[in-house]
């Protein structure tokens, strides 16, 4: 199963070069993938992973280098060329069309299949079969994609890749939007695919995933291949991290400094209810405290954050900031009162992709820099540069269009915005999604520093160890209700996972 009909590897990319104005994103990259393997591509934010797979998907034209597929040199002039060879891609920034239905998205650009479907019902049935295969028969093929939650959109993107009878499926951080149980489901599908001889290129910043699903690892650094063919299950983490970063990084959480006994309550939530999402939720966050919400995707985590921020109107209950009830649901009022939200779907909700980094970072802080009606641009730029440095955004150029930053660096821009402006309360939804292991530790440090300065932080993350390692206090959510509360230091991952899965239909997924 390791080789193709002619005995060689399925894919050989050699000496791939790709330049963008002012950046050599790929500087002679080599990648060899065998049929039936899960080949992991690792590298820091901005190392060139997404660029490389865009070359392979026909979305970027390389400036130099050769691609052989199935032993033959190929030219991938556009996405259709790649598709025709059996190369399907699930992009990091999902490229779904919001206004179209689930089924339309799955079969988009699918000439053969589309013309084969004489009736709409047939296409919907085919879509349903693919969704069921992915363990998500509950997603209606007729639903509008734009209305699905992040995890649902990810599933649709997967279904589209599966619809192509692919020989090579590229997954760029597929697990970033998925919770623990969903990842188990994704891995089951990957195993089915590879057993049938399909090759998978898997990109993720979560090393424990690489160990579980990966066969071999290629490491990129600054647009070059620095290691090939490492065994995914046996290569020590320290070695991988050193290859990626050129230094040794400890994956540690900053020391907790719980808030003082007399620290004032910044946020109080009383009996908050939004039918279908969460029920009778009450808790508080004090100045200097980090409170974490742990729960599955769909447990109501993100919706609670959005209700606090005024983006959703709860049916019952109230939100108090500094002891005063926040009236009406309005995000403008929330920002004025000193709340900041770093949302889960940053591309859709948080970033002006065509605008510069500086403009994106200073969006919320604009008022602080305007004196007598005009903007003090120099001060603003200096302040923005300080934040970019603190978060290690690369490249550190405030004038660059956000669109041209790598996924992880875009995430840092969203966070930098709220760090710039003095906030009372920060609502962080998946703050480290897509951020590499090296930068993660830095980000944790930044969040803890903010808390130490007296900011109240409410944190949501699918990664339970992150919630336990960072939060002073953890609220465990199941099906929209808080079922447990304890200091982060007193909880362990397994018991939290048991609590959040107990009684849910998916509890069995992933157990042998
Ligand atoms: N369209 C573009 N125009 C200009 N520069 C770009 C463009 N796309 C990517 N780059 C640059 O190329 C480099 C590699 O980016 P790439 O997105 O491939 O990184 P990555 O390894 O996928 O990182 P991440 O883990 O953050 O997703 C970065 O310096 C990025 O800013
Ligand atoms: Mg990327």
Automatic annotation (TrEMBL):
InterPro entries: AAA+_ATPase, ABC_carbohydrate_import_ATPase, ABC_transporter-like_ATP-bd, ABC_transporter-like_CS, P-loop_NTPase. One of its GO terms (cellular component) is plasma membrane. Residues 11-247, 261-504 form the ABC transporter domain. The keyword Secreted does not apply. Keywords: ATP-binding, Cell membrane, Membrane, Nucleotide-binding, Repeat, Translocase, Transport. It comes from the Bacteria. It is found in: Cell membrane. It is a peripheral membrane protein. This is Sugar ABC transporter ATP-binding protein. It comes from Actinomadura rubrobrunea.
